[in-house]
Give the backbone structure.
Amino acid sequence: MRLKALLLALFAPVLLGQAEPRLVPDVSQRQVEIRYSFTGAELLLFGAIIYPDGRTPEGDTDIAVVLKGPLEPIVVREKQKVAGIWMNVDRVRFRSAPSFYAIASSRPLSRLVDERTAAIYELGLDNLQLSPGGGADTATLRRFEQGFIDLRRRSQLYAEDPRGVEISEGVLYRARITIPARVPVGTYTAETFLIRDGRVLAGAAREIRIEKLGFEGFIADAAERWSFTYGIVAVALSLLLGWGASAAFRRRYG
């Protein structure tokens, strides 16, 4: 036992030196509340890199931060003009597309990791695993994937910032990610990856809750829980408002 303890004491510095660093991440808001006046928000994702021997290694150390929304099935339709009329001519179903995806990194991803590593960790919009429903060939799937990602980018639900992470003294990091006004609600995951020499050395995650409160929350909850009643009430209100507008118009100009 004494010999074992002595060997552990002698080789402890070596073992610690071989240990990988770890991340201690945090976010500025664990909960984002959407009310009637919500116009968007900005999340600050920050943290520290803890090295086992307390020394910052020489060379480049990089960070990539990913904010991902709840997964959802989605159908992407392609429209074409047929006989002068725009029609849906083809469609592809994806079983698990993130409702929101934003990534920020300290350098462009192509300079941090190879294609295989990027695909494993889903780093970048081109490496999202959308899980197609099947039935379409590879070229068609790729076309629909690119079209879907382009639509999400234009609606600000997908984003990439290749220089959106600042690293101080090789230890502290921070990144800012914009949350648009029409962001989907649910539980989001903020993932942080420590990258060095093309390898992901460490990863850590934090959860963020985005939810509607007040009258907006009541309407969203009612639409989900009592969808049939909600539909009837919505139609009735539309008819009532239309009748009221028509009656006011006749009274004024009739």
